[in-house]
Amino acid sequence: MTVKRSFPRLAVAGATIAALAITGTAHAGQKPAGQKPAGPAKSFDRTATYPVFLNRPAGEDPTTETVAEISAVSEDGRTLVYTDALARRIGFLDISRADQPRGLGTLSLTQLGDAEDEPTSVAVVGRYVLVVVNTSASYTDPSGRLDVIELATRKRVRSLDLGGQPDSIAISADQRYAAIAIENERDEEATPPGGKKGDLPQAPAGFVQIVDLHGSDPQRWSLRTVPLTTADGRALPALTAAGITEPTDPEPEYVAINGRNQLVVTLQENNGIVLIDLPTGRITGAFSAGTASVDRIDTVKDGVINLTGSITDVPRESDAVAWIDDRYLATANEGDWRGGTRGWTVFDSRTGRVAWDAGNSFEWLAVRHGLHNEDRAGKKGTEPEGLAVAEFGGTRYAFVGSERSNFVAVYDVSKPTAPVFKQILATTNGPEGLLPIPSRGLLAVSSETDNAAVGVRASVSLYQLGKGTPGFPSIVSGPDATGAPIGWGALGALSADPKQPHLLYSVTDSAYAKTQVFTIDARKSPAVITGALPVRDERGEPVGYDAEGIFARPQGGFWLAVEGASGPENKLVRLDAAGVTRQVVPLPAEIAAGLGKQGFEGVTATTDKRGREIVWAVLQREVSTDPASVVRIGRYDVTAGTWSWFGYQLERTDVPGDWIGLSEITVVGDRLAVIERDKLNGPAAAIKRIYTVELPDGPAAPGPLKVLPKRLALDVLPALRATNGWTQEKLEGLTVAGNGQVYAITDNDGVQDATGETVLLRLGPSAKVFGHR
Questions:
Q1: Which of 315, 313, 304 is nearest to 270 (CA)?
Q2: Which of 55, 294, 561, 624 could form a disulfide with 594 if both were Cys (CB 3.0 to 4.6 A apart)?
Q3: Structure pTM?
Q4: Full set of structural domains in the chain with CATH
């Protein structure tokens, strides 16, 4: 039985200006990154996010998995072409308007070859699209071809046999050469003689194909092979001398060409880098990517963001590579089976020495921006996979993409040995293709992760370089006592500080093993998390509550609304100012019995006419004994220790599998404001609203559940769409600060089954939002 495997790779993207200094490790006497004065006040801002499932062929099920991996652009910068290995096709987008990309359809490789053929990379030369196609029958019988497609007609005008399984392609600036990495990828399930499962070597060995682009007629183009082993399969002396891990099985991964037509090739699994002169096809250099030791990072998957771990002497195993200039090159050190150093590196191509290394700074960017993927902490962390370099308006930028934390970091590399971090760009899941389009001041990022089941789809995002303030980030963390960024995520609740008008509080939910209350300074833009208070149980031990609501009490301390995995586990928890649990109020048994896993979602409190503290809490979903689409608002009298309940009528959508629920409650004058939302995200999102109901002046009367009349205060969906990103599902936090401003926030689910982007919305004065004085 023959098998086919997808072998995609590549990447590039942008970001936002940081207040916290993020530094790398300088070499050769250079100053660390972050020490250079700030450059021109320009930044990349997201203009559009296009879900590529919208570009599917007519009649195809919209839930069918379809991705955008590597992308290229026409010479006029207006037509973007992307590969979709899963669907065995390439797609076309009209990006003439950066704010309104438009699908132009797809071209199926089934029509050009075999039904299992997969595009691995794509490039554009003149009026032709060069599509690199994997046609391998198996790992031991690799094959591939280069299809030349006329862009205007989408007709194939030529196909060249590549002689092996290809990965990436690069085009020289003078368009005289194309270079293709023929990887002949290893089988991770195979065991070579004397080795372990997945080990090298696994024949046949990979090599490089040079395409001589003789003029504009593809019929005149020809191939030249650059072997990376001897004719009889032995190691080349140059690779052996460079310390390549297994030089008889080089497995070239990624290619890039400088202005002198020097090709650089990464040998990811072999932790090596090879230089080739394209005019002659001669190998001019080879060196190891080396190892790195990185301190103060999270290395354990335990539900806690703990930046005290380290990795020692780990191979970089670089994936993407790009020339900064004709001498210095940069690599994204994703790692493969033995390595990955969670950052990126600048090498001097003349010596093979490290000129600069990011150290822990790339990981810290993820933590600071709430994009740390704790699920990957014990593996390769952020996994910087893609990297591209381009000049915009006289400034040379490097774009480094994080496959696992869904962002692209942007650096000024005007001085190659001292990159300066400029900003971070939020992306959709698995940013794979990074495509600078300097002629139009654009960056395109294509993403490879598509999951219709959770509504997070693969996309192409566009970012424009301009002078305005970028929309992302809206919230970041400051340093802790050690100088490391405070780890955060899953902010599903908000509360105002009762005394300080600019301060807000939020709390983590079950995305993390240990609950923390965060202090947020909203005076700044982006807002800054300035403190993290560990929450403890009655014995003073760290505790992991699924806290979905928080209220900062004027009397001191906090109320938490804790959701349970089952009804009986729902409870209200009162903390003192030190974060220690002082009171637990269980949900009444008769209510808990009718709940599933969606219980308490918000909490607030008032003081009645007799000076008693009254706690108000909402249940997200219906109790089974209540009318359909009616959820409960609870009133708990702290002094009396009694509950009473009011009803709230939910809206509906006609989307199969969707449900509506409440996510927050807060007091606004003589009314209670709640968030009502659906479970939809992206272009499907429909209900993200704030409603108000009259604040009852006493407990509910006995008898049937009284449904409180509601009125719409604000439809928040337009504000969420205004980010031009993936519209977030979980609008879950709402409060009115002491300064009268209304804030709302989205829960990023700890970067699990979500893009990971957190949106803190500043919705305006309370008087405007809620129509009161």
A1: 315
A2: 624
A3: 0.94
A4: 25-466 (2.130.10.10), 488-770 (2.115.10.20)
